[in-house]
Amino acid sequence: MIEDCRRSSDNMADRRQLFVEMRAQDLDSIRLSTYRTACKLRFVQKKCNLHLVDIWNVIEAFRENGLNAMDLNAELTVARLEVVLSTIFYQLNKRMPTTHQINVDQCISLLLNFLLAAYDPEGHGKISVFVVKMTLATICGGKILDKLRYIFSQISDSAGIMVYSQFDQFLREVLKLPMAVFEGPSFGYSEQAARTCFPQQKKVSLNTFLDTLMSDPPPQCLVWLPLMHRLANVENVFHPVECSYCHTESMMGFRYRCQQCHNYQLCQDCFWRGHASGSHSNQHQMKEYTSWKSPAKKLSHALSKSLSCASSREPLHPMFPEMPDKPLNLAHIFLTPVCIFFIISLLESSNHQDEEHSLIARYAARLAADAAAQQQRVPTDLPCSLDANKQQRQLIAELESKNREILQEIQRLRLQHEEASQPPPDRGQQNPTLLAELRLLRQRKDELEQRMSTLQESRRELMVQLEQLMMLLKTQGPGSPRSSPSHTISRPIPTPIHSDSAGTTPTHTPQDSLMGVGGDVQEAFAQGPRRNLRNDLLIAADSITNTMSSLVKELNSGKTEQQINKICMEYVKDKSKFLCIKFTELQRNYRTTLKKTENCRYFVYAAKIDWYKKQME
């Protein structure tokens, strides 16, 4: 008794908590009863996390708990109803990621207390199966089309025709939901409610039922039901439009545009609460928008609609066959004696077990009976089922092959787009051989430039030495001071021309004759045609040496000083002139050959560098 009182007090606390939080949302300030009712039921739906559960999850929970095999007028206890709700929310938690787990106990408690407050206000502790099915199918999430199809399957006969008494009972029970959120005066039940929905219809099929409840506008007593689904669909819709009353830069949810005032638009909060400004009035006709379209998109849509020959309006729902699917024949299913004995033993001990345990035992017995019947069944329709399965497998294989082709085409187009969007890569990065060769060519170019500068410096040194030699030759002309033969012979010879001693035959090598010249000049003289000029220069130097030897002999022969001077002047004049000519020609040829050789090499390497640059670009 104490536990029952404590549980009752907890239930009352949970009910008060739900309604206190609903009042905190200030939903009663919405002036239109349709929006007010839809917003309140949407709040209950989200608070209990039923917006995450669709009709198929609810049907699966009914099947797991055996409600699909029970009579619609049968009654469920509160404990049994709690088991059904536990199945729904525990299965939901299995589908949710670990980071978005819900509080299952809180959801079960809130939804259970809301259902008891709506359908068991006297506290009898029992609710019919029909009420549980219709209520959960109405306030769960998912598509309204699927929910209405399930509701029609519960209120129609085997021929697929709606039973008016069942539809009237559906309205009686489902309209208790608005009453539970204090909207009974606007959407209460009346005796004429069923006839107002289908005034002149003798037989109501599934298509007629869907056309009526999904029409615009729907029946007055159920106008809040499609609006609740529209609320769920537009909760995250963004409108980049400023509200004309609260001047919010953008809107979320519904958007309302006045049909009389120019460019006067309101957000859903301002419209629901009756706010108006300027010349706008609440009596003006407003149009509801559930999406945003740019002016260009509106113009293109209007043009395509005006130019299209056929009507582009799509039906509200797909058309279904008039006759329902043939139900499965379950007459061959029977219980074995072992299963019957097992069930009887469970029923005899039911007073000592919990109701949930007996329900689990009943499911186990049913599964055992199904397995035994499956073994005893004669497969009469086996060939037909095999053919159907074979066709289905072929169709699945074709669809999978098409899917693979489409995925390959998408991958190919994606690769082409990525290649087109990326800048062309550097070829030097792709070909390291070209990069290394370019680096070597640049290094060779720097070496050649350094070599040219060295050769220029050597050329200047050679010019200085040639000038010194010319000055030396000039000093030995007619105006030179007289000196003794021994003094003339002992005069130092310039470094480019080297002789061991007077009166000896020249036997030195070309390298010995160029000992005083720089290494670069030696390298230049040691190449090809330029050896002729070098040999001529050496021959001239040797001729001078021989002449000086002859001069010494003449001096020793006893001739007069005047005769000796004359002979010396003739020899010096002739040989000096010949030596100057040879040196000048040597200088000119060396300069020309050096320029041609080094410039040719330089331009060859420069051309190769330019060619590699073009290849890499």
TrEMBL record:
<feature type="coiled-coil region">
    <location>
        <begin position="389"/>
        <end position="465"/>
    </location>
</feature>
<feature type="compositionally biased region" description="Polar residues">
    <location>
        <begin position="501"/>
        <end position="512"/>
    </location>
</feature>
<dbReference type="InterPro" id="IPR043145">
    <property type="entry name" value="Znf_ZZ_sf"/>
</dbReference>
<keyword id="KW-0963">Cytoplasm</keyword>
<dbReference type="GO" id="GO:0005737">
    <property type="term" value="C:cytoplasm"/>
</dbReference>
<dbReference type="Pfam" id="PF00569">
    <property type="entry name" value="ZZ"/>
</dbReference>
<dbReference type="GO" id="GO:0045202">
    <property type="term" value="C:synapse"/>
</dbReference>
<keyword id="KW-0597">Phosphoprotein</keyword>
<feature type="compositionally biased region" description="Polar residues">
    <location>
        <begin position="477"/>
        <end position="489"/>
    </location>
</feature>
<feature type="region of interest" description="Disordered">
    <location>
        <begin position="475"/>
        <end position="516"/>
    </location>
</feature>
<comment type="similarity">
    <text>Belongs to the dystrophin family. Dystrobrevin subfamily.</text>
</comment>
<feature type="domain" description="ZZ-type">
    <location>
        <begin position="238"/>
        <end position="294"/>
    </location>
</feature>
<dbReference type="Pfam" id="PF09069">
    <property type="entry name" value="EF-hand_3"/>
</dbReference>
<keyword id="KW-0862">Zinc</keyword>
<dbReference type="GO" id="GO:0005886">
    <property type="term" value="C:plasma membrane"/>
</dbReference>
<dbReference type="InterPro" id="IPR017432">
    <property type="entry name" value="Distrobrevin"/>
</dbReference>
<dbReference type="InterPro" id="IPR050774">
    <property type="entry name" value="KCMF1/Dystrophin"/>
</dbReference>
<keyword id="KW-1003">Cell membrane</keyword>
<dbReference type="Pfam" id="PF09068">
    <property type="entry name" value="EF-hand_2"/>
</dbReference>
<dbReference type="GO" id="GO:0008270">
    <property type="term" value="F:zinc ion binding"/>
</dbReference>
<keyword id="KW-0863">Zinc-finger</keyword>
<protein>
    <recommendedName>
        <fullName>Dystrobrevin</fullName>
    </recommendedName>
</protein>
<dbReference type="GO" id="GO:0099536">
    <property type="term" value="P:synaptic signaling"/>
</dbReference>
<keyword id="KW-0479">Metal-binding</keyword>
<dbReference type="InterPro" id="IPR011992">
    <property type="entry name" value="EF-hand-dom_pair"/>
</dbReference>
<dbReference type="InterPro" id="IPR000433">
    <property type="entry name" value="Znf_ZZ"/>
</dbReference>
<dbReference type="InterPro" id="IPR015154">
    <property type="entry name" value="EF-hand_dom_typ2"/>
</dbReference>
<keyword id="KW-0175">Coiled coil</keyword>
<keyword id="KW-0770">Synapse</keyword>
<dbReference type="InterPro" id="IPR015153">
    <property type="entry name" value="EF-hand_dom_typ1"/>
</dbReference>
<keyword id="KW-0472">Membrane</keyword>
